[in-house]
Specification:
The chain is of the alpha/beta class and about 230 residues long. The chain is built from nine helices and seven strands. About 35% of the residues lie in helices and about 20% in strands. α2 crosses α5. The chain starts with a helix and ends with a strand. Bound molecules: S-adenosylmethionine (SAM).
Length: about 230
């Protein structure tokens, strides 16, 4: 009995499957040249964002930024705010590194690791002003719904990392995931709904359009955007 109690919590269900994407030579080169400037490695130690980014500023974290184009665009328009982007797909991270260099972005740092572990281990409690989750993998098959990142345990973690008054901003183009998000968020006591938009692609809620959003729109999907406040 005690053995069971003492076992560490091991998360076995992940929100992603590592895709075997090869880095292009340009992305490989970007990792070699630009990771020291923009990247930070996974460790079990809490980071100090003022050391990581070299100043004290409000901090926005984005989970699953894909190829990073919308993250770089937003960071370029908000240079007084700091950003951390987390993405497990290394070609996407390589693409983002190149975009960040091209746009001369200095207020952004990147992690190429499971966002849940980075949040748990490396992000200080109450350290975030905002967390963006744009077009998380929808896992459309019912038997895969447990892989969806928006679950009560994930929201517990997000609630711990957001400062009071901070926001959780979500978008999806999957109606069934939108219904799931409405339910799980309503059920969770730590968040209040500030705004919810259902639209045809023209009214994103304080964010640029993303690659997956454009893909969804081409398929005829509608878009759902939410902003929740950490109470
Ligand atoms: C459907 S794509 C959306 C990408 C981008 N936000 C967009 O809208 O174009 C979801 C992304 O989340 C990433 N992802 C899923 N779970 C993750 C996790 N636990 N940690 C980091 N990245 C994750 C996937 O690798 C994938 O690139």
């Amino acid at each position: 009995m005690d053995d069971v109690k003492q076992k560490p919590f091991l998360r076995t269900i992940r929100s992603f499957v590592r895709r075997t994407g090869r880095l292009t030579p340009g992305q490989q080169n970007a990792f070699e040249r630009l990771w020291p400037k923009y990247g930070f490695d996974f460790s079990s130690e809490v980071i100090d964002p003022t050391v990581l980014l070299g100043r004290s500023a409000p901090l926005i974290l984005e989970i699953g930024f894909g190829n990073g184009e919308s993250l770089v665009e937003y960071a370029g328009k908000h240079r007084d705010v700091d950003f951390i982007g987390i993405e497990v797909h290394s070609p996407g991270v390589g693409h983002c590194l190149l975009q960040a260099e091209k746009e001369n972005i200095n207020n952004l740092r990147l992690s190429c690791h499971d966002a849940i572990e980075v949040l748990e281990q490396q992000i200080p409690d109450s350290g975030l002003q905002r967390l963006n989750l744009y077009f998380p993998d929808p896992w459309p098959k019912a038997r895969h719904h447990k892989r969806r990142i928006v679950q009560t345990e994930f929201l517990d973690l997000v609630a711990r990392k957001l400062a009071p008054g901070g926001t959780l901003n979500i978008a999806t183009d999957w109606e069934n995931y939108a219904e799931h998000i409405d339910l799980v968020m309503d059920d969770h006591g730590a968040f209040g709904l500030r705004e919810r938009r259902e639209h045809g692609g023209k009214r994103p809620l304080d964010r640029p359009a993303t690659k997956f959003e454009r893909r969804g729109l081409k398929l005829g999907h509608r878009i759902w955007d939410w902003e929740y406040v950490r109470l």
